[in-house]
Amino acid sequence: MLEGNTIGFVGGGNMAEALISGIVRGGATNPQDVYVAEKHPQRAAYLVETYGIRACSLAELAEAASIVVIAVKPQVVDEVLGELAGRLGADDLIVSVAAGVPTSRFEAVFAKTPVVRVMPNTPALVSEGMSVIAAGANASKHHLGYARAILATTGKVLELDEAKLDAVTAVSGTGPAYFFYLAEALVDAAESVGLDREAAATLVVQTAVGAAAMLRDSGRDAVQLREQVTSPGGTTAAGIGVLEDRGARELFTAMVTAARDRSVELGGGAKPEASPPNPT
After folding, report:
1. Is the pLDDT score of 280 beyond 50?
2. Which of 10, 88, 108, 134 is deepest in the core (most CB within 10 A)?
3. Mean pLDDT, to the nearest integer, of 31-50?
4. Which residues are annotated as a binding site for NADP(+)?
């Protein structure tokens, strides 16, 4: 679907590289039809040498690309929009992976340009990403198809309403760090009960990989899988009991809520009101 289109990446960081790698190595398009505008010359040179793409200025990118991927930090989006103003039209497509930035921010500058907002995550770097796409006011199913084709080279893609994307950011966007934090804590805990760090890390990583594969492939949900391995009075029950007694579920809810609220703030919105507690 991407053949015949030129794709320009504004920003050449890790997420941009994951997408570039996916579309180039997956054969989705000719590398010479992929451009990157990256302010650090050494980084731009690396991307050109590694993937065979073209480096250019932001103005040159706007002229050459039919699909413009905004892959910069949310704090610099307005600066980028100022430089691109007047250079993109109704026949172009903006795909934004800038966390927390709503499509309305782009549409205020490019009134007729279709915009698709994307929330990817870092496992895209190893082709195990989870990306969610949402259409702006001018984006059609056809435009969503282009965004899906780009993101599908790095993992799974789900389409949702844009109103859900701050919550998505707090779950799958930020989620890998939650799992890394849990792995870090488990390794520390393993050391505290007598294992050396190398052995502990091996145990934790493979356990995480195996558990994730079971969640994906077994046809059972997390509750069923947990109950399957939690025998009454057993070791798993003892460990899970500590988590329940110390309010782990409430901590996870607070964690996700804080990340969701920060995503809203980065997008220039007001902090959402707290949801009422679920009745018990």
Report:
1. no
2. 10
3. 97
4. 71-74
